[in-house]
Amino acid sequence: MAELKVSVVSADNEVWSGAAKQIVARTTEGEIGILPGHEPLLAILAAGEVRVTTLEGDVVTASAADGFLSVEHNTVTIVARNAELV
C-alpha cells in the first residue's frame, strides 16, 4: 500500500510528522485532496485547517496560515508561519 510521508512545520517547530494515506488542505485556489501518487505540486495555503488521515484511519487536524504546501514523490511538506494542532 502506498503512503504519504507528511511533515507539518510552523516557523519555530515541527507540529506533526508521520505516514498518511490522505491529506486535505485549503489553498488560495480552493480545497485540495492529496493521495499517494499525486503529481508534484506547490500551492499557497489559505487560512484554515489541514486534515491528515493516518494509515490507521485517525484524523489529525492542524490549523495553518501564511505558508505553502509542497508535494513530491509521496512526500508532503506543509510550512506555515502559524501552525498548531487543533
Task: Describe what this molecule looks like in 3D.
InterPro entries: ATP_synth_F1_dsu/esu (IPR001469), ATP_synth_F1_dsu/esu_N (IPR020546), ATPsynth_dsu/esu_N (IPR036771). Belongs to the ATPase epsilon chain family. Its main location: membrane. With 86 residues, the protein is mainly beta. It has a single domain (4-85), classed as ATP Synthase, domain 1 (Sandwich). 0% of the residues lie in helices and 71% in strands. The chain is built from no helices and 7 strands. The chain has a 5-stranded mixed beta barrel.
Count the E strands. Answer: 7
Strands in their spatial order, largest beta sheet: 1-2-5-6-7
Residue fraction in strands: over 45%
Name of the top-level CATH class: Mainly Beta
For the record, give the distance between the C-alpha atoms at the N and C termini, rounded to a whole number.
28 Å
- Radius of gyration based on Cα positions: 11 Å
Order of helices and strands: EEEEEEE
Query: Could you name the ranges where pLDDT drops below 50 across 5 or more consecutive residues?
Result: none
What percent of the residues sit in helical stretches (DSSP H or I)? under 10%
Let me know the average pLDDT.
95
Question: Strand pairing plus helix content: what structural class?
Answer: mainly beta
Provide the CATH topology.
Answer: ATP Synthase, domain 1
> Number of domains in the coordinates?
1
How many helix segments?
A: 0
Name given to the CATH homologous superfamily = F0F1 ATP synthase delta/epsilon subunit, N-terminal
- Largest beta-sheet details: 5 strands, mixed, barrel
> Which architecture does the CATH hierarchy give at level 2?
Sandwich
Which descriptor suits the 3D outline? globular
